[in-house]
């Protein structure tokens, strides 16, 4: 559908009248007596604005909210306006409602950093948004006089994570919209003219959900073996944690005997890099470095040139339909338009990390967390640059790069940073990168501050349902630390935050149970499996809060430590079994990635991305055997293991005619 048609359909809803508007009412209606006195309205979804400007689409909490939202992620520099050209049902007075929140209110923090304005033809409403409420709600913006058409803009005031999900103009100025997600979803879909049932999106041999390394490799492996494949991913770029959006460097050894071809596809889709000479190298680590190191386009090009793959990026799986112990279809929704499609499949691969498809299908899983049983947390990597360094400025991913280059050319290198009373108060607290001895304020002193995996939180939180809260706590941590370094310690005057991930890099959530549940003891005891399928080389790496930074932040820790010592090492390379790559109770479900069948200790060695990618390579081959022989993932182990092992000896480029 073209953008013009999409906008016209969104504007047509202004004529839908009181019957449609009543779906969104905060009060119930008795017949027609209490319906809105004037049902004319205009409803705008933020992600549907024709121009997003510097605002980002954030879909991470879509399952909880029913919709993505726009985020003003400017690292303290206000971002460019998001804009929509609209047509009202008629001129006159409308009450304005904006769905938003004060994102630091859950911590009773002062300052409301996510402030923004709603501009109508360049004129701001009197009300400032993002200043109220710890939960998502409709913020009353007062009334406004409008003509027939208008230019609506979200105008960021701070660059500190303002957020907007939708805007409603209503001619009944006494009307109050409901906050109930189910009611809002029904309203939204009716207004957008979507049918009650999703559109049919086709049938595939294999539907792969999740476009990280595991999902990409599964899709390519299966397609090259002759299967029709749908690859569903809820971001615009592929790679997941290994993309330019998250920038966790892929680790794990590939191409090892006895199956040296396992890892071929991983190598094919990743940019070859010498760590010693990589662009943006930060003291030996590539975490959080230049976007070019993660080469999103390379992954996209390989997938798009495979004719048997239908790539559906910017789509999220919202429902899984089952019959008995088999999945029949998944329903996916565009994060940009709200359009839903139903994808039927013979087999499915859950490569979501959160086990989204398996969970929706009723697959057996493990997931437990508490203060006494912490999860590994999530990180939002960030980096800094020296504004007096020409190469840093030229290579910067900053949204205000043009302004920064102008400053450099004019010799204005100093980079002030505002005080952040709403962030973690680290003015007199230790944190990595805050040196005990007198710091010189040079790049070398910052080597343990930025680009570091250990800025991590959410150890006792639900990494699926609380991810917005967890991500926001990560924001408060690194903003508070940078505030302390710049404004309390008076260091790094020419340095600035250059980039930070707003998509959280997760380590642990639900794990789907298979016929083998791989445990850390299997690694330390070097248990040998007849169905060895993918090599593991990372140590038993489990994270937990770092004790020396806990004081004053118990329950809200923000720095992690990791397991070390002989109990967390094993004898070099370890080959894990195929039987942890399919569900034990959903007959046509594979999985690859950090949601496979492992215990907590078993997760430590398998969760790094190259290892996850090799899992994908294997399940793609196994899916081809399932289709060829009319069997199940378990049936491959029971009756066709030798055939799978022969496939595993063949190169990743092997293609069925």
Describe how the helices and strands are arranged.
Blueprint lengths: L2 H10 L5 H4 L19 E5 L10 E3 L3 H4 L3 E5 L8 E6 L4 E9 L15 E5 L2 E2 L12 E10 L2 E8 L3 E5 L1 E5 L10 H11 L7 E11 L3 H12 L4 E5 L30 H6 L26 H9 L4 E5 L1 E9 L2 E9 L5 E11 L5 H6 L3 E2 L11 E2 L2 E5 L3 H6 L5 H9 L46 E2 L9 H22 L6 E6 L10 E2 L7 H5 L7 E5 L6 E3 L14 E3 L11 E4 L11 E3 L8 H7 L2 H21 L3 H7 L1 H9 L8
Parallel strand pairs: 12-13, 12-17, 13-14, 17-28
Antiparallel strand pairs: 1-11, 2-3, 3-10, 4-9, 5-8, 5-11, 6-7, 6-9, 15-16, 16-17, 18-23, 19-21, 20-22, 24-27, 25-26
Features:
657 residues; seven-stranded mixed sheet; 23% strand; globular; disordered N terminus
Can you characterise this structure?
This protein is 23% helix and 23% strand. With 657 residues, the chain is of the alpha+beta class. Strands 12, 13, 14, 15, 16, 17 and 28 form a 7-stranded mixed sheet that branches. A 4-stranded antiparallel sheet has the order 1-11-5-8. Strands 4-9-6-7 form a 4-stranded antiparallel sheet, with no helix packed on it. The radius of gyration is 26 Å and the shape is globular.
Computed over alpha carbons, the radius of gyration is: 26 Å
The shape, in one word, is globular
If you average the pLDDT, what whole number results? Answer: 92
Task: Count the beta strands.
Answer: 28
Structural class: alpha+beta
Number of alpha- plus pi-helical segments: 16
Biggest beta-sheet profile: 7 strands, mixed
Structure at a glance:
By secondary structure, the chain is α+β, with helices and mostly antiparallel strands. The chain contains 16 helices and 28 strands.
